[in-house]
Structure formats: C-alpha cells, structure tokens
Design goal:
Blueprint: E1 3-4, E2 10-12, E3 34-38, E4 53-62, E5 65-78, E6 84-93, E7 106-108, H1 113-117, H2 125-128, H3 154-161, H4 179-186, H5 219-224, H6 242-249, E8 262-263, E9 266-267, H7 294-303, E10 306-307, E11 310-311, H8 318-321, E12 345-349, E13 362-366, E14 371-377, E15 390-397, E16 407-415, E17 427-435, E18 439-447, E19 452-460, E20 467-473, E21 489-499, E22 510-512, E23 531-541, H9 553-561, E24 564-568, E25 574-580, E26 585-591, E27 600-602, E28 610-613, E29 623-630, E30 634-640, E31 651-657, E32 662-666
Parallel strand pairs: 1-4
Antiparallel strand pairs: 2-7, 3-6, 4-5, 4-7, 5-6, 8-9, 10-11, 12-14, 13-16, 14-15, 15-23, 16-21, 17-20, 17-23, 18-19, 18-21, 19-22, 24-32, 25-26, 25-31, 26-30, 27-32, 28-31, 29-30
Protein name: Tail fiber protein
Organism: Paracidovorax citrulli
Region (Disordered): 193-213
C-alpha cells in the first residue's frame, strides 16, 4: 500500500515526547511509540489502511528558527480519546534520531527524501551505457550509443530478438509460436485426449476413442477396485460395496438408530455421572446453598475494592460523586468563585497589593511590573452551568519579558491540616481555564518550607476558550521537606501566568527548592488586554478527576470565614455592644467566626462612618478604631470620639457601621 499525503497539514504535541523508550515495548509506550497531539488533527488524519502510512516531521520552532527535526512514520491514528489525537509511530525514520519534545512543539506533513524517491525516474542502463556495441551489430554500428540517428534504438532491437523469431526480410516470425512452443506441440499425438495418462487410460495403437470400454488399457482393472464385479454384469448386484457389507454385518438385529451401547467404557444399565457428559466442573447444588467460586470472587474484587465493610480505591460513580453522600472531597476552598467578600473588581492590581478577586485566591508573585484588573466575573464555562462565576485577570500594564526572578499567578494556600493525609497518596488537581495565550501553561505546587516543588505543564489549545484540564500527582506528597500539617501553610497551589528563568525547572517530578514553571511557560502578561480566567478548581485524592462537587453556599462561606471576614453596613450595621468608660472612648467586644489564628483587624473607610448609638444620639469617631487585643473568636476594640454624647461613665452603646466603614478580620497566610 502507498504512502498517504495531505495538503498543508500541521498540528502540535499536547504532551511531552521522550527521546528513548522506558520499557521493553517501545511501540506501545505512551509518549514514545504512541504520541499525543492536538485533537484538531482528529478531523484530518484518518487511521491508515493496512500497509499504508503517513510521514510527518516533528520539530521545535523559536521565532523563525526551526531545530531538532525528526521524521516519524505514522501507522495508526486513534481519535477515541476526548481532547487529544493519538498517533502510533515508528521513530527516527530516514536517518533521523528520536528526540525529546514538549507540549506545543510542532508536527507537519512535509516532503522528505524518502517520499520523493518513490517518484524518481530511473534510466534503462542500455540507453545510457557509453560502451562500444558488440556482437552481431558490432560490424554495423560504430561509435558510442545511444545514437539518435538509428531507425531503431539498439536496446529495443536487443529486447525484441530475445522475445520473437526473426525471419529474413521481416520484422517478426512467420509462425504464431516460438520454436520452443512448436517443439512441444509436435510431441502431442493426433486425436490425443486432454489430460489422458498415456500408460493407464489408453492404448494409442488400438484405441482412437470409439472402441468399447474393455479395450481401454487398465480401465476394467481400475473399476474392479471400486465396485463388486458379478459374472455377466459390469457392476455388483448389491447396493453396497464389500467394505460396507462388512460394517452392516456387525450391526445386531433389532438395533436402534443412534443407540448408545456404552458410556466411558461401561455398558448395560449405565448411571450417568457429570464427568461422562463434560460437566465435571458443574456444581449440582441448590441455588440457596451455592458458594461463590474463587474465580467469581476474584472477578467481583476486580470491579469493586472492598476492605471489611468499607469500599476502597477510586470509585468514579456519577450518582455518588454528584450528591452529598460523596462528602467534602475538594481541598481547595471556594472553587466555584461564589464568595468575594472584599469586593468584585480591583483595577490597578499589582503583585504587591495582594488583591483577592474571590476569597482564598490571590493575585501574587515577585518583581514583575505588570498591572491588571482582577475581578469576580460571571462568564464561567457554559459546559458546566453550576460554574457561573470565575476569577478573571485582565492585563492593563504589560510585562513583555519575564526576566530573572519575575513571577506572577493566581494562588491558593491550603492549610496544613487539610493536606496531612496526602503523603504517599495519589491526588488530582483539575480546573477550567481560559487564556488569551495558546501554548504551554504551568501549575506549580510547593510546600511552606519552600524546599519541595512540583511543576506540571498543561496546554491551552484555543485562545479565549474555556478548556477543562487535570493534573495527577502519582504518589502524592513526598515525606522529605519542610511540610506543615497543622494550622500553618501546608501546600501552595499556583496557576502561573508568567515566570522568569530563576524559577524554571523540568516538569513532572518533585524537586528540591522553589520552582514555579518551565521554560515553555507562555507569558500571559506580555500584552495589554490579555485575559487569564479560572474556575471549578479542586484538589482531591485519587487518580480520577471526578465531577465538580457543588456545595451549599453557606458551607462555602463558612470555609472562607475561617481565613477572612468583612463586616460592613450591609451585613453588620450594628456589629458590637460597647460601653463608655470615659468621656472620649468606647470599648467594645467584637465577636466573629472562629479564625485559623488570632487575626489582624483593620478599619478602612471614613472615620466619621464609625458611629455609636447612645440614647437618641449618634456620635461618630474622631479617630480610626483599633483592636486592643484579638483572639480566634473575639477582639477588644477601642473607638475614640471627642464629640458630644459620650459624657458620663459606664453608659452602654451600640457600635454602628455607616456608609463605607468596614472591619476586615484577616487570618489569611
């Protein structure tokens, strides 16, 4: 079968490609013998019929410079896996060497030397051989050939003489056969019968085809071995041959058709056993008393992991995962981006301002001068109606080149208590992402001691389009390193939007030190107007990204309040009961949801909007309130006012937030 071709075919890898196999079966090894490319190829490449193939060229491109070429022979195309196209290939064709590639490197159908050689025109050596003619023609022809002056090219004449007989004065033989064929025909007798053996069927000297059968030599003897001969007749008087008559003589009178005379060497009144009829392995036990066979038990165990009275393993059951019975699997908080206590939009955000577009997810990094608007947006992925909101970053001041220690990303820190069971346990991070930049993006995970990091690459296939991604960390967290498993920072999870070479590493393994991305990470901050959005993010134990767990909004809010709580005029107009110890102060006991640690308190807004209610009066603060002391559940705050209305000791009052006055209770990391 031929080599297959397409016009203008190009695609890219969506996963790393190895330069050498890691197993004894390289042909079936994922990312060596089976390569994953963009599912955009699924509508173009077909699975080649047996014996056919495509020839593709893989290479890297940096700007206009191409390098690291490898020619691949594609013998199989599998479009059955959602989100990708898998190519079964033979590596290092036409003298090239297998090379390593990363997601985003290119694959094209180009002309190669091997492909062009199929169409190269060869020349008959007799038409170009410069030797002097020899043989019978040597006396007639002179000089070197080919000689365009001859009526017939010399090579054609030589070929014709090998195929036909030449007659003087003619170009072809006068006969319809060659001399050899004529010799064969001459050896066949007149009136010969087709396929008749000379010695057995016919005596050519006496038989011409019209004599009686008896005169055909050997025929009566041959027939005598096939039938019984009866005197005076040509055939037996019986309807059976001698051999058949012997068989019939062995049948007893009165025998029934197909009657069984013995079973397993036993005759007479035989009692059948299960083994006599091939049922020796059948358990002839009542249904209620039947045990489960060893093979059946093994088959059941393979389908459902069960230890004692508990199911174990990764069970991806849709009706279970989507209900409250599944419990709280997600270690990341506010994955639907529904809670945004600080506000819904923060223009002019930089990495130094530490803005939170939604609770528990911060825009953070180092050194980069990029500025963006970070906000809670309402344009989540349509494929999951439960994910209506997202955290969105829109670049307003670009950073064209991420250099040195530059870095930026959206990040959540998981408390140590919530990752203590992930050591040595495989877990999966999954999320929906939308980016203006097509290509490799990085997800970084690192510990609170900053001495262990894991970087994974994922590829954005289409600009400004929601795409679902998942990353599985086989073996979970490593035991070594400075890990916190209590109320401190346990695991940092950062979606990188740009990173300089200081924090580059190779993907796919835990490394010693702090790393945030790879050299393949695109710079999402290089152009004003670029967008990076995130929602549906989760981290769960197991190797399967299960359907997103849609929890009650009250539960999500409670999780967020452990780390941050804001009181304002909308949710806490009267927020505390106070007392007036003197003519200029109010002492109040502020209670709040239990925090991770003793929080810090801040009081943004106009000072005059921090007010009191004493009788019918509403005096305002003249100085900004402050916390005299704070614990995980309550704080003692002091409010100062020199306005009239506080005169007299031991008066009770209500503390009121008006206008833009807010109290931020912050226990974030």
């Amino acid at each position: 079968m031929p080599q297959l071709y397409l016009n203008n075919f190009t695609t890219q890898f969506i996963a790393s490609v190895k330069a050498a196999p890691a197993t004894a079966n390289p042909a079936g090894e994922l990312d060596y013998g089976v390569l994953r490319v963009s599912d955009g190829a699924a509508g173009t490449l077909i699975n080649p019929p047996g014996g056919s193939w495509y020839v593709l060229t893989a290479f890297k491109r940096a700007g206009t410079v191409e390098s690291d070429y490898e020619i691949l022979r594609v013998t199989g195309v599998d479009n059955s896996v959602v989100g990708e196209c898998r190519l079964t290939v033979l590596r290092g064709q036409e003298g090239t060497t297998p090379r390593a590639y990363v997601a985003g490197d290119l694959v094209e159908l180009r002309l190669t030397a091997g492909g062009i050689s199929q169409y190269a025109q060869t020349t008959d050596p007799r038409m170009s051989d410069p030797r002097t003619p020899t043989g019978a023609a040597g006396g007639v022809l002179s000089g070197n050939y080919p000689n365009p002056g001859f009526a017939q090219p010399m090579a054609t004449v030589a070929q014709m003489e090998g195929r036909v007989e030449k007659v003087a004065g003619k170009g072809l033989s006068t006969n319809d056969y060659t001399t050899a064929d004529l010799a064969k025909l001459a050896g066949i007798a007149e009136q010969a019968t087709k396929n008749a053996p000379d010695s057995q069927l016919r005596d050519r000297s006496t038989h011409t085809g019209t004599q009686p059968m008896a005169t055909v030599m050997g025929l009566p003897e041959t027939l005598a071995t096939k039938v019984d001969v009866v005197a005076g007749k040509g055939l037996s008087a019986e309807d059976f041959s001698t051999a058949e008559k012997v068989k019939l003589a062995g049948v007893q009178p009165g025998a029934q058709v197909n009657a069984v005379l013995s079973v397993a060497g036993r005759s007479g009144n035989v009692v059948l056993l299960p083994g006599d009829v091939g049922l020796g392995s059948v358990d002839n036990t009542a249904d209620a008393a039947k045990p489960v066979s060893v093979l059946q038990a093994a088959a059941i165990a393979a389908r459902l992991n069960r230890t004692g009275d508990q199911m174990t393993g990764d069970l991806a059951l849709k009706t279970l995962n989507g209900s409250h019975l599944a419990g709280t699997r997600n270690r990341l908080i506010n994955g639907r981006c529904n809670v945004a206590q600080r506000g819904t939009s923060f223009p002019g955000a930089s990495i130094s301002t530490g803005n939170y577009p939604v609770d528990r997810l911060a825009f953070t990094g180092s050194y980069t001068p990029a500025v963006a608007t970070v906000e809670q947006a309402t344009d989540g992925p349509a494929l999951d109606p439960g994910l209506r909101r997202c955290a969105r970053l829109t670049v307003t001041t670009a950073d064209p080149a991420m250099e040195g220690g530059d870095s930026a990303g959206l990040q959540q820190i998981i408390e140590g208590y919530n990752i203590a069971d992930l050591f040595g346990v495989t877990f999966t991070v999954s999320f929906w992402v939308r980016s203006s930049r097509v290509g490799v993006h990085c997800l970084a995970l690192f510990n609170g001691g900053f001495d262990k990091s894991f970087v994974a690459e994922y590829s954005v296939q289409n600009a400004n389009t929601w795409e679902f991604k998942s990353v599985t960390l086989v073996g979970g967290l490593p035991a070594a390193g400075g890990w916190n498993t209590s109320w401190g920072p346990g695991l940092y999870v950062r979606w990188c939007v740009g990173v300089g070479p200081t924090y580059h590493t190779q993907p796919g393994a835990w490394r010693d030190g702090l790393y945030l991305g790879t050299s393949s990470q695109v710079n999402c901050l290089d152009t004003a107007g670029n967008v990076f959005a995130l929602t549906g993010f989760r981290l769960e134990s197991g190797a399967v990204a299960t359907p997103f767990e849609h929890r009650q909004i009250g539960d999500e809010m409670d999780d967020c309040l452990r780390y941050f709580e804001q009181l304002n005029n909308a949710n806490a107009n009267v927020y505390a009961m106070g007392m007036v110890p003197n003519n200029s102060q109010v002492w109040a006991l502020l209670e709040y949801d239990t925090k991770r640690v003793a929080p810090s308190l801040s009081f943004p807004g106009s000072v005059a909007n921090f007010q009191f209610q004493i009788g019918s009066g509403t005096p305002s603060c003249t100085d900004r309130p402050y916390a005299n002391s704070a614990g995980t559940k309550r704080a003692h705050i002091v409010l100062t006012s020199t306005s009239a209305g506080l005169a007299g000791d031991s008066k009770a009052c209500l503390c009121v937030l008006a206008g833009d006055a807010r109290i931020n209770i912050n226990a974030e990391f």
